[in-house]
What does this fold into?
Amino acid sequence: MEPTGPRCRALVLRVALFEECGEQLGADGTCALGHGPADQLKPSRLGHTDAAPTRNAVTRRWTGPPRYEFFSVDDHIIEPSDTWSARVPAKFREGAPHVVEEDGREYWEYDGRRGLTMGLNAVAGKPRDQWTMDPVRFTDMIPGCYDAVARAADMRADGVVASVCFPTLPRFGGALFNEFADKELADVCVRAWNDFVFDEWCAAAPEMFVPMVITQLWDPEAAAAEIRRNAARGARAVTMPEETSLLGLPGYYDESWDPVWHAVTETDVAVCMHIGSSGWGAFVPPGAPFALNVALGCLGAFAHSVALLMSPVPRKFPSIKFVLSEGGVGWVPSALERADRHWIRGRDMMGLQGPDVLPSEVAARNFWWCLIEEPFALRSRHEIGVSRLLWECDYPHTDSTWPNSQSEPADLLDTIPRDEAELIAHGNAEALFRWPLRLAECGRPDESATGL
It folds into this structure.
């Protein structure tokens, strides 16, 4: 019989999101993973009653007309509290994600458990000395984190005129619902998130928000059908984990994923893969600050992208489009050089599959890489391929350039020829996502941003 009684409420990092541990507490107050009373949840040091917009806001450093129109290929939606409760049938509402309140903070509850992912580094608008790992209430965030109308105003005010947004609660690759025991509930939750994206988020600024969807990862045939369903109403991207074998699923070398690859190539939908979505993380020494986890995030992008570059997938599906988000770019030339060398030396001995196309040739045809502020990447842009580089704002996370995208990123782009800078700022993304900037509809940036 499943044990009952108190569960451990210590914060645990799971696939880049913090959730309660959930293990049974023993008589001594510790759980099987060793968490004790000192590890239990503590209130945010910011408090719960002071709405975020009333705190000291980040100062905008650029006030003139926009220097660049930016197309951000990596931003994040903090889902509103009714994302699922307003969309799933009544019989699923208790199991689908919904917000509850206890001890002065708000939680997501779903599938019989509680998650601590209310905001996940939703620090937009706050100075760095007020950042926390996870805002504990919606009022700990500026409205642009979870309100699409406010987000669009924030973006326009920063010269960002197009935006691809990843999920937060479902995790960056949509893997949360794969864990649900009730796959009918999981399917409903996937479809509800996608309906929210179209009916609420993108509808608030259809010229700006580029529709990206999640899938039923546990069922590639259902995932393919969901991709086609949403492509028919305008989806341009699907987010998937960088690797799936660590999530209890077949890896991408397995042909069971072929229905998905057929669907994305037939519909010309880009496959976006965000760091932290696979469940893998680099080794971090005990006692190291969390900043080290973030600094090493590029290693996941390195490992998983090379795995895909050497896989049968882009050789069997030569028009597939992979986008590696937030993993950086400066390491790419070295990674391609090494992958080519070992492809050539090890192809016969190691039984590498598919047409004899070098990993670097696959990269030049099937891969795009994302940067935020990387001077070295710009200096090595021709080794990577200028047409392969995309820009990301990462609103509302700690990496974000908002509200100063017209300052630091624009300063860096000014160090290269203007035609190349325009490709990186927006031109490459326009072509990749088939999403020409509707500048006339967006209008000129103004100072109406909700966060400042």
